Amino acid sequence: MASSGLSEEALIFQGRLMPVIQIQDLTKIYRSAAGAVTALDHVNLRVRKGEIYGIIGYSGAGKSTLIRCVNMLEQPTSGSIKVNGQEITSLNETQLRVARRKIGMIFQHFNLLSSRTVFENVAFPLEISGVPKAQIKEKVTKLLGLVGLSDKAGAYPSQLSGGQKQRVGIARALANDPIVLLCDEATSALDPATTDSILALLKDINRRLDLTILMITHEMKVISEICDSVAVLEQGKVIEEGLVIDVFTQPQHPTTRRFVQTIIQTDIPEHIKKPLLQRGRGQIIRVSFIGDAAAEPVISTLVKKFAVDINILYGNINQIQDTPFGMLIIECLGSQDNCRLALQHLRRQGLRIEVLKNVE
Ligand SMILES: Nc1ncnc2c1ncn2[C@@H]1O[C@H](COP(=O)(O)OP(=O)(O)OP(=O)(O)O)[C@@H](O)[C@H]1O
């Protein structure tokens, strides 16, 4: 059963599981006199309708190349990219111009036209699409309301803050009612408070318009705050991919772990770990929990039901969007049988159990 409560069949029927972006075996090699650089190496990704999908990676991982291939600002060397079912790598110039209207994009440095007002910047893509003036006025007014800039219609970009400029960028990207919004490091040039407000706006637009968003970033905070799914890119390859909550709670690849560690403590710090494992008394166990289980009184139940004593040695609770998760390091003191039954009970509650040190 999917998290919405609907069966997978119902979601497929509604088109919600149909990938809006499907990338298969995408490879991009830049060739120059200096040699060849493989920026993307057989990348496969599926972005579902209505989700916010984040791609994270260090500098040079291939993020910009990947997002620019999705609207063909960069020509792939090989592979397939389908947007809303349409193969975009084989379109001619005219077809591509039409397809691009449905692929909105916002940029790190906003890319606004400095000689045009806020209103005129947002109107620009509509003028190019040949929309009549009266309709443009109505649409731009609505979009400026959506991004909270109704009072800035007559201002020029130079008169705006970074956050306001990005709001104009978002309104402009939404002008042609895109199927997907591409965000190229959309908050990297902004301070933390402005970043939060732009992320909140993107989430709001995603929910209100059911708009699929693909974003690239080098900040795990961006992923944790608004993304549903994430892919980690390294040297042009996807090294890990999945729902954000799964990747955060069980990162597999060392690079992913390093990204996760930038915002949450998932490993036990070494200075705490060493003395813990030297304790000679009972079994030492790491209990990891997600969602509702985080609110259950698991420890008191163990003590009551299994005649064991529990020492809590270390612990933390974090939250990704609405889902709490965390871990406890506990010491279980009691007979071997009782400790074994206690662990079985924890596993049956859906908790992840890892024995760090066994009873001597
Ligand atoms: N036009 C180009 N010509 C040659 N090599 C390029 C070109 N653009 C990018 N590259 C190389 O391709 C690789 C991926 O670059 P890309 O800009 O996609 O990475 P990135 O993850 O977006 O990095 P950053 O966050 O620094 O922008 C890098 O090794 C880069 O040097």
From TrEMBL:
Coiled-coil intervals: none
Q: A Gene Ontology molecular-function term?
A: ATP hydrolysis activity
Report the EC number(s), separated by commas if there are several: 3.6.3.-
Q: Which SMART domains match?
A: AAA, NIL
Domain annotation ABC transporter: ranges: 21-260
Question: Mind listing the UniProt keywords for this protein, alphabetically?
Answer: Amino-acid transport, ATP-binding, Cell membrane, Hydrolase, Membrane, Nucleotide-binding, Translocase, Transport
Enzyme class, UniProt record, top EC level: hydrolase
- Which superkingdom? Bacteria
Matching InterPro entries:
AAA+_ATPase (IPR003593), ABC_transporter-like_ATP-bd (IPR003439), ABC_transporter-like_CS (IPR017871), ACT-like_dom_sf (IPR045865), MetN_ABC (IPR041701), MetN_ABC_transporter-like (IPR050086), NIL_domain (IPR018449), P-loop_NTPase (IPR027417)
Q: What is this protein called?
A: Methionine import ATP-binding protein MetN
Q: Which organism is it from?
A: Desulforamulus hydrothermalis Lam5 = DSM 18033
